Structure prediction request, 248 residues.
Amino acid sequence: MARKPFVAGNWKMNTTKASASELARGVAAGAPDGMDVGVAPPFVYLDAVREALGSSRVLLGAQDCYFEKNGAFTGEISVEMLKDLGVKFCLTGHSERRHVIKEPGELVAKKAKAIYNGGLIVIHCVGEKLAERDAGKTFEVVQKQLEELTPDMNDANRIVIAYEPVWAIGTGRNATDQQAQEAHAYIRGAMAKRWNKDFADRVRIQYGGSMKPENAKGLMSQTDVDGGLIGGASLKSDSFLAICKAAI
Prediction:
């Protein structure tokens, strides 16, 4: 089944208002047709980036949100607030949220449900640490993280999985094409069992571990790799767009 590629840039805690706007304009000007392209700037620049993207096809995304609709939750951002700013997708379970911020799976699950029920696209991040891979626990870890999503979240257009081997994020070390395909194929198979095969065949699975222009084509030519969740290489429009073009 042909799945529409989706490449999203996660800008993390980077950029200023001026550089975020400039980067967004560059992405908007060069984003190729025939695929989905998105950018997830820091919360404080969402409005500026939306304005910079203008009427382009580039999707505006958020890096995180809270699961409650409103209330006394100092510092948190709701799904409705994101929608008010034109956000179309939101990340859940990024490894830095899990392992640096120490966000437990139960909280990740609540956020994913809130994002999905709010009508946004969920990019749900899964992946193992180096010790877990070396111990042969990759599939066990990924399976548990996939179970943070529930079978009633069954719109394949609004569920995206990002496989990000934690040992390959920001290290310059990336999974081989074969390692990526093996993990992605496992994820699709696990989703077929938890949902159904038709749903699993339609869900897009991004690769998210140190993808850059030099390795993007090989990774995204794999059968079950449907795009990328890009970190450092998304902070320059030329490198990010090169990755996007490798997807089609």
User: Anything to note?
Assistant: The first helix runs from residue 17 to 30. The domain at 6-246 is CATH 3.20.20.70 (TIM Barrel).
